[in-house]
Amino acid sequence: MKSENKLIGAGLLTAITASLCCITPVLALIAGTSGIASTFSWIEPFRPYLIGLTILVLGFAWYQKLKPQKEIDCDCETDEKPKFIQSKKFLGIVTVFAIVMMAFPYYSRIFYPNSEKQIIVVDKSDIKTTKFKISGMTCTSCEEHVNHEVNKLNGIVNSKASYENENAIIEFDKTKTNETEIEKAINSTGYKVTDKKEN
User: Fold this and answer.
1) Of the candidates 38, 69, 70, 169, which lies 20 to 30 Å from 155 by C-alpha distance?
2) How many C-beta atoms lie closer than 10 Å to residue 100's C-beta?
3) 143-159 confidence digits (pLDDT tens)
4) How far apart are CA 114 and CA 127, in angstroms?
5) Predicted structure pTM score
């Protein structure tokens, strides 16, 4: 029974660790400490292995739980009900939680508030587009975090961050903000601007 509990604990731990790099930006946003968002981005390359390990561990736990038990040759009472932590119901709850954690990067954007705002452009010649090269983004949650911080600035017309391209293309009114302010906003998330050029 102790080995089953260890398997369940290991499965839960690996599932949480697999998504820690994507959960941290959302937690940072909720806590109001956006600078810690990139703290666990180093885990991203190990994510597929952690997911595989989670599946193996929980699969083995289910195998242990569902395999036929050996019958005991005695007349003693053996109908003792297992504790909740040793039940199939608990293992099912842990399995569902692990799936929810591993899938987090795919639905994380629902936790970010809608950052669309009404933009009034007085003169189109004041609109400038700059591409910021950014290091440290690993998933859509990172993109949403960068967009959220940039959109707090006045004069932002459009912000499109991409972790795959490692950049953010930002359209802004140069009379209301500038590249330095945008770079500060991006760097405040914990991700770093490594280069910028006018688009």
Assistant:
1) 38
2) 12
3) 888 998 899 898 899 99
4) 22
5) 0.64
